[in-house]
Amino acid sequence: MIRVDQAGEFGATRIYAGQLAVMGDRAPDSAEIRHMAAQEAVHRAEFDALMARRGVRPTVLEPFWSAAGYTLGAVTALMGPKAAMACTAAVETEIDKHYSEQLNRLEADGSDPELAAMIERFREEEREHHDTAIGSGAEEAAAYPLLSGAIRLGCKAAIALSQRI
Q1: Cα–chain-centroid distance for residue 46?
Q2: Residue 142: is it exposed, middle or buried by C-beta count within 10 angstroms (0-12/13-18/19+)?
Q3: d(CA 165, CA 158)
Q4: Which residue among 27, 89, 135, 147 has its CA within the 20 to 30 Å range from the CA of 35?
Q5: What is the pLDDT of residues 8-56, one digit of tens each?
Q6: Is-above-0.90 flag for pTM?
Q7: CA-CA distance, 82 to 142, in Å (whole number)?
Q8: Residue 10 and residue 158: Cα distance in Å, rounded?
Q9: Spacing of C-alpha 72 from chain mean position
Q10: How far apart, in whole angstroms, are the C-alpha atoms of residue 126 and residue 146?
Q11: What pLDDT, on the 0 to 100 scale, is given for residue 27?
């Protein structure tokens, strides 16, 4: 769980880096994206520290997630602010589902209260990111259902691959 979650938070920081590289401070939602990026950086740092304390190795796919996340962020930002927010909404939909499934397993067996508390705290922030994206017009992006579906499918694939590799 820790390796997969750290990979996801790493990917999120790369998505926002790509978006901000394109949008800078000029786009209508740059401040919101910068705020969400800062929260994702905290999530990543906490998972990095947990990995180090527990001796968990990162996924070997990290270089790929770095490039893929940055590219996804940059491309959606080039499509416009609403597409950038559609990206956030899609990613956070899958992360909320993923974190909720993990939290259910952890709470059922009570095996790792520290990890459960982290996941629950981060899940609430991810839900806020989703709501911010929807409030900023994510669903108004061109071809939103297609864009959202493709990004969500990519997230599911990334989670599955990071669980195995």
Answers
A1: 14
A2: exposed
A3: 10
A4: 147
A5: 999 999 999 999 999 998 888 899 999 999 999 999 999 999 999 999 9
A6: yes
A7: 8
A8: 12
A9: 12
A10: 22
A11: 84
16: its two tokens:
């926002």
Residue-wise pLDDT for 105-133, tens only, equals 999 999 999 999 999 999 999 999 999 99
Q: What is the pLDDT of residue 85?
A: 97
Q: How many CA atoms lie within 13 A of 100 on its CB side?
A: 9
Q: Are 77 and 18 in contact (CB under 8 A)?
A: yes
Q: How far is CA 31 from the centre of its chain?
A: 17
Query: Which letter, b or e, does each residue of 86-124 get, where b requires 16 or more Cβ atoms within 10 Å of its Cβ?
Result: bbbbbbbbbbbebbeebbeebeeeeebeebbebbeebbe
